[in-house]
Amino acid sequence: MIPYGRQSIAEDDVRAVAEVLRGDWLTTGPAVTAFEAGLARWTGGVPCLAVTSGTAALHVAYAAAGVGRGDEVVTSPLTFVATAATAALREARVVFADVCDDTGNLDPDAAGAAVTGRTRAVTAVDYAGHPADYDELRALADRAGALLVGDAAHSLGASYKGRPVGSLADVTTFSFFATKTVTTAEGGALALPHGERFARAARFRNHGLVRDPAEQRDPGHGGWHQEVHDFGLNYRLPDVLCALGLSQLGRLPAFLARRAELVARYDALLAGVPGLRLPERRPYVEPAWHLYPVRIGGGRRREVYDRMRAAGIGVQVNYIPAYWHPVFEDLGYRRGMCPRAEAYYAEELSLPLFPGLTDAQQDRVVECLLAILV
Known about the structure:
- The protein has two domains: 11-249, Aspartate Aminotransferase, domain 2; 252-373, Alpha-Beta Complex (Aspartate Aminotransferase, domain 1), CATH 3.90.1150.
- Helix content is 37%, strand content 14%.
- It is built from 13 helices and 15 strands.
- It has helices at 11-21, 30-40, 54-64, 82-89, 108-114, 134-144, 195-205, 239-249, 252-270, 301-310, 326-329, 339-347, 359-373, and strands at 48-51, 72-75, 93-96, 119-125, 147-151, 159-160, 163-164, 171-175, 188-191, 209-210, 227-228, 276-277, 285-286, 292-296, 348-351.
- The strands form four sheets. The chain has a seven-stranded mixed β-sheet with strand order 1-9-8-5-4-2-3, sandwiched between helices.
- The longest helix is centred in the C-terminal third of the chain and has 19 residues, at 252-270.
């Protein structure tokens, strides 16, 4: 089976992990700060905070933003459910706004229509690695007095109008799951330019612990004393995984270049195929291309999915609209709310895309798809 995505592990990655295993720090050590510093070089210098997953990064982001009961979070339904679920876990009301037909990203006009006086955050999703319309979303978030959150799980290394992802929002989250461009097996991170928001995120990541005597309510008990002023969780990413991530960052330019090369080959090989719509790119962005999402017309997506899987081609569908999940249905959300997102989902199929995909394997993917469609 040719998977739709997979990790790219080299001997340098293995050596980096082994070095940590032979050292003194398995967690909360120097590899964590080194990985965070390495990430900041890709966010235009915006400080970064490593956490245990992309989902954890979103949860920490909403906590740092002060999202809570009575607040609203406006976001896209065309995303993995965690983008919305973590806001709901903060007891906020998730307000889904429709997407742009070409990119699948949050539509600024739809988001603007969804904003109310209770909107605490507007969360963009860089679908497939294509950055969202950050300037327009920034303007509407500022008008609403809300924070702009960027779910950049797909887009580490991408840029928008010459500015790197990670520098475009008040809080940006990343994912390092195995299929992402850079992996720590499981893991995530946040980029936070605001100092106090960064401090809140750092505390939430570490149980909410306050260790600085100058910030404690009852200091003076001894060097062991620590306090919890607001509840947090253990979302610390260990040194072992940070060492893997730091090693992977050294190959990020090569990963991005190979993904772009494969996308260009797909574009050329599949151009003009009847019933097939290829992914689109705005002229002012440099995508990271986590996915290659084609759209299958004529109601044939399920047929194509089943036949390609049977042929050993691991295509995938990304994503079920978040409010279609029963947990949101039970909260009163109904299908039909975001028709463009639902139409996108009804046709979407992600073809295999990862740096280790060979030209010969890609040719096989294309031949199989053409044999079904043409």
